[in-house]
Design goal:
This protein is an alpha+beta fold and 188 residues long. The chain contains four helices and nine strands.
Amino acid sequence: MSTTQSERLRELLEPLVASQGLDLEEIAVDSVGRKRVLRVVVDSDTGADLDRIADVSRVLSATLDESDAMGEAEYTLEVGTPGAERSLTEHRHYVRATDRLVRFQLHEGGELVARVLAVDEDGLDLEVPGVKGRKATTRRLAFGDIDKARVQVEFNRKDAKDTEHAEHTENTENTENTDNSDTTEEEA
């Protein structure tokens, strides 16, 4: 996708996504055989459930149909969320990752896996898990020290809130979507 088309699509779609109470995270146009696929990734501080994804998808589809932003060729619109193992590139991404385990690639060349405890304008307060029976430690990490950061999926995390919930609902089954990526598709 050319920079011009990307910028044009962002200018067209970002206000529409914002009007639905969401942030436009990413836009990509890919060719799949003879068809094109426009992928739009949205998110918010409170998350984006399937109903919100469907609502924004309808709004974007109607606007794209009325414009020439995608040209005359057929395309498929896919609207979804970043998913469980999202890359953290904006300040708001780090805020949304509070209490999550994150793998950091550091500018100095090292790697760090730690839980985000708090985020401010300068950096992060982290809890670094203990190794071989040692207690977890806290660490401050400045944004300038981070080269890349990606949320990690945790399947077996037990914290106080989960334990308390489990004690009160012993005989109920919890069916939680661990993927965190809802997607809807519309043919244009």
